[in-house]
Write a structure and sequence with these properties.
353 residues; alpha+beta; 12 helices; 6 strands; rod-shaped
């Protein structure tokens, strides 16, 4: 874009001026390499563009080299006609700002200062007879550009570090918030969801059942004779039993199922991706797995659970679902323990198995 603007400006300038030396800029005797410099500028830009599109490495070197070449060719084009054409020589220094590279800025600044000194004493002073004061002024401008560009880069790095710290703080805050949310939802002893989260999740699922026909079964687990365990071996053994039973239940449910500690020694499991028959098989497998667990710290006696399982029927609502499930659990507890009682509402009534 810069080169196209420059070429357009040159064309307008040449076509609109009445200066004969400009009209005869093609003549070598005038000392203006007008056409040659513009052709070289276009060639440099095309080569740099080809390099950036085809090569995988040294993109920064290509941009910097092209910028340096183009800036001095522009200087040679503009110098005979425009005062202060040396400003185009600042382009390589400004290119370093694209990469926010302080080392590159220092190298380009030093190189530009030295290279312009060679141009001044080899061309401007001998051919154009420019005063020494102008040379010092241009060199001072180089130094000012380098200092200002360095300040911009330093400030950019400070802003970047500040943003990184803010991002890190936000990430830490998000982690802390996630941990806090988890602590609010998880039962500290068993690692299952707590009573409050269970009801929130169940309410949401029941809405989906009524609106989308989602299949849902609710199972309530109760550890048999848990009070005797606490009284005989102590509450710390009772806590170990709760942890182990909870871990076994958690390890046997599906990805779309939900397990929670419902009460002291009661657990609840919500099945959402199973048929009623599959849910029956799942809770029976859990009952058997829990009964086979070994508890040497509890006298080596097996720990069993009684389970009530209910299939949700549309229109029942939360209260009726819990009443049916709780009745099934009651029958399991008073029917011999260590068993599963299921209830499914049908048009004929309520059937217990």
């Amino acid at each position: 874009m810069i080169v196209l603007l420059m070429l357009a400006a040159q064309f307008i300038f040449v076509m609109s001026t009445h200066m004969p030396e400009v009209k005869s800029a093609f003549l070598p005797a005038q000392g203006h390499l007008f056409v040659a410099c513009n052709v070289l500028i276009v060639i440099a830009m095309v080569l740099a563009e080809m390099w950036l599109r085809t090569a995988a490495q040294y993109h920064k070197h290509a941009v910097v080299s092209c910028g340096f070449i183009v800036s001095y060719l522009m200087y040679f084009v503009l110098e005979p006609f425009v005062d202060g054409a040396q400003m185009t020589l600042m382009m390589p220094i400004m290119i370093s700002l694209i990469y926010f590279d302080r080392k590159l800025l220092h190298y380009l600044g030093i190189f530009s200062i030295v290279f312009y000194a060679a141009v001044y004493f080899g061309l401007e002073r001998l051919v154009l007879e420019k005063p020494l004061l102008e040379f010092f002024l241009v060199e001072c401008v180089f130094i000012v550009f380098v200092v200002m560009a360095r300040m911009v880069i330093v400030r950019a790095w400070e802003v970047r570090e500040h943003l990184e710290q803010l991002t890190k703080s936000e990430q830490e805050l998000m982690v802390e918030r996630a941990i806090s949310d988890k602590l609010l939802k998880i039962d500290a002893l068993t690692g299952l969801y707590n009573h409050k989260t269970f009801h929130e999740y169940l309410d949401s699922l029941l809405e989906q059942c009524e609106s989308n026909g989602l299949h849902l079964q609710l199972a309530l687990f109760d550890i048999d004779s848990f009070k005797r365990v606490n009284d005989t071996y102590g509450h710390w053994v009772g806590d170990l039993v709760l942890k182990e039973v909870a871990a076994r239940v958690k390890g046997m449910i599906g990805l779309n199922d939900f397990a929670a500690r419902y009460g002291g020694e009661e657990f609840a499991v919500i099945f959402t991706d199973k048929s009623f028959q599959e849910a029956c098989v799942a809770v029976e497998e859990m009952r058997e797995a829990i009964s086979r667990m070994e508890h040497p710290y509890a006298g080596g006696k097996p720990i069993t659970v009684s389970i009530g399982l209910c299939d949700y029927q549309l229109g029942d609502g939360k209260e009726l679902l819990f009443r049916k499930t709780d009745n099934a659990l009651y029958k399991a507890k008073h029917g011999g323990k260590n068993m599963v009682v299921t209830v499914s509402s049908t048009l004929q009534g309520t059937i217990y198995a």
